[in-house]
């Protein structure tokens, strides 16, 4: 069976009857411009660039949004279920059994399913999605340290208890050994490359071990979820030396401070840097961000090399994507808690492999991360589960359609909404109620409207909303955004969330 056809010529790329393996690589807080071949920034990503060179890169791929500051929770829930934000269970921590996961679908089709790395949903959805796994992270203990990351072995019984967590460290001979956590293991980041392997190295090692030892006749589906480049932005010194802070170029949207309260200015991510974000502070954060990305890229390169050396590369569909954007100084922000493009929702998405894609192609069709599930199913000739909302991009890949969507809609908690259509993007901010255990109920945010020509101004630097010549564009965009909110289910009677943006709009 073929994977898909070349646009225009309609030539078959892969004619093997044998089912393709699938390697799905998902990175954390990896914005679109964090891949050199896509954003053309200073960051060095030769191995991810090679995936794009040998495949298709989607230039308008987006996270739909989040009702949590931990945007990686709904992002992963959307990836694994193929369901849009307003159809998740709550914030996405829990995946109900009637929502088929991508791992389950491939398991049903006879694939051996394997996961490595970060998991942010409930334990039952983890173990029902995969036959096996290795070195799982994110099950309740976190030391905020890539060199001291609590890990778990695969547990088909879904226990993953704190008592079973361990760290990987170097002994006096430089060998990697495991040890139990102790009360002396305080939150970091305090680890260095002298203490133990980096999470990116650990997860790459486990993926490589699986690939090198794989002898089954049935194909495999591997979900490889790196924690990088999520903060703390730690990397071995070799990679840090590649990016002297004083050589870093600031992006067009750099600001020392966000010009108004966006509703969620006081949280962990924004506390990583002092206010104002001076050019020196922003350059250092970008230098650290680029360093951990380049280190991550090297580990991805090792995994691809293992595929080639094992003879599996020619028969493996490789899908690479990031879970969210990240500001790192854009618009005066550091985290990803916004609906600006690079700062929050614009992500890299590449489909590659020796027989898997038209080499070097760029597709500007609008897409969400939850479209990845149905697209992979379509490429591997699997039926798409009924519980999936996403749209397959295969018609676009084949050249049958230019778009499968004519707009995107984004939400961040009760404070921010965005609507993108054609060349324009509307962002609406409101002043809304909020709640915390420390403060109880309070009010935060600002009532602000932003309108950008996203085609001419991709970094979103020039607000057009107050200019008379854009009055009609703004009017239409506002009307349509409200209509899409109802269609998508973005209202309090439908979603399990305490506050409704539209009550404050």
From TrEMBL:
Q: Which residues form the Sulfatase N-terminal domain?
A: 20-381
Q: Does the keyword Magnesium apply?
A: no
Q: Which Pfam families match?
A: Sulfatase (PF00884)
This protein's UniProt keywords: Calcium, Hydrolase, Metal-binding, Signal
List the cofactors.
Answer: Ca(2+)
Task: Kindly give the InterPro entries that the UniProt entry links to this protein.
Answer: Alkaline_phosphatase_core_sf, Sulfatase, Sulfatase_CS, Sulfatase_N
A GO molecular function assigned to this protein is: metal ion binding
**Per its UniProt record, what CDD domains does this chain match?**
sulfatase_like
Q: Which family, according to the similarity comment?
A: Belongs to the sulfatase family.
Record's protein name: Arylsulfatase
């Amino acid at each position: 069976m073929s994977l898909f056809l070349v646009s225009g010529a309609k030539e078959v790329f892969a004619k093997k009857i044998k089912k393709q393996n699938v390697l799905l690589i998902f990175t954390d807080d990896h914005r679109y411009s964090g891949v050199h071949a896509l954003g053309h920034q200073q960051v060095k990503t030769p191995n991810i660039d090679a995936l794009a060179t040998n495949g298709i890169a989607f230039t308008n791929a987006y996270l739909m949004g989040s009702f949590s500051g931990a945007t990686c929770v709904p992002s992963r829930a959307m990836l694994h279920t193929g369901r849009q934000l307003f159809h998740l269970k709550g914030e996405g921590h829990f995946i109900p059994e009637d929502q088929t996961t991508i791992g389950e679908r491939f398991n049903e089709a006879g694939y051996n399913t394997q996961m490595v790395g970060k998991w942010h949903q409930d334990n039952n959805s983890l173990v029902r999605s995969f036959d096996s796994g290795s070195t799982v992270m994110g099950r309740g203990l976190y030391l905020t340290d890539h060199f001291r990351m609590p890990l778990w072995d695969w547990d088909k019984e879904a226990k993953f208890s704190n008592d079973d967590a361990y760290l990987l460290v170097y002994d006096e001979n430089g060998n990697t050994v495991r040890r139990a956590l102790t009360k002396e293991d305080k939150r970091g980041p305090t680890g260095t490359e002298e203490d133990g392997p980096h999470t990116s190295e650990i997860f790459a090692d486990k993926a490589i071990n699986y690939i090198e030892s794989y002898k089954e006749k049935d194909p495999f589906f591997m979900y490889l979820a790196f924690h990088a480049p999520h903060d703390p932005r730690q990397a071995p010194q070799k990679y840090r030396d590649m990016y002297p802070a004083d050589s870093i170029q600031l992006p067009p949207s750099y600001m020392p401070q966000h010009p108004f309260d966006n509703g969620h200015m006081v949280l962990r991510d924004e506390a990583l840097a002092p206010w104002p974000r001076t050019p020196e502070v922003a350059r250092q954060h970008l230098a650290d961000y680029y360093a951990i990305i380049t280190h991550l890229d090297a580990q991805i390169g090792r995994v691809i090399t293992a595929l080639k050396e094992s003879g599996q590369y020619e028969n493996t569909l490789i899908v690479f994507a990031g879970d969210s954007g990240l500001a790192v100084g854009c618009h005066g922000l550091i985290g990803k808690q916004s609906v600006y493009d690079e700062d929050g929702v614009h992500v890299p998405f590449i489909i590659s492999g020796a027989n898997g894609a038209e080499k070097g192609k760029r597709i500007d069709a609008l897409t969400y991360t939850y479209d990845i599930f149905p697209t992979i199913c379509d490429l591997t000739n699997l039926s798409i589960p009924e519980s999936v909302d996403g749209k397959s991009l295969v018609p676009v890949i084949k050249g049958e359609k230019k778009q499968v969507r004519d707009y995107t809609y984004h939400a961040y908690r009760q404070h921010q909404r965005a609507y993108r259509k054609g060349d324009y993007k509307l962002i609406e901010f409101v002043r809304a109620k909020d709640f915390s255990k420390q403060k109880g109920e309070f009010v935060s945010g600002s009532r602000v409207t932003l309108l950008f020509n996203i085609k001419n101004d991709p970094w979103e630097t020039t607000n057009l909303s107050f200019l008379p010549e854009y009055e009609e564009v703004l009017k239409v965009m506002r009307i349509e955004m409200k209509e899409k909110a109802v269609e998508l289910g973005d209202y309090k009677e439908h979603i399990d969330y305490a506050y409704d943006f539209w009550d404050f709009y």
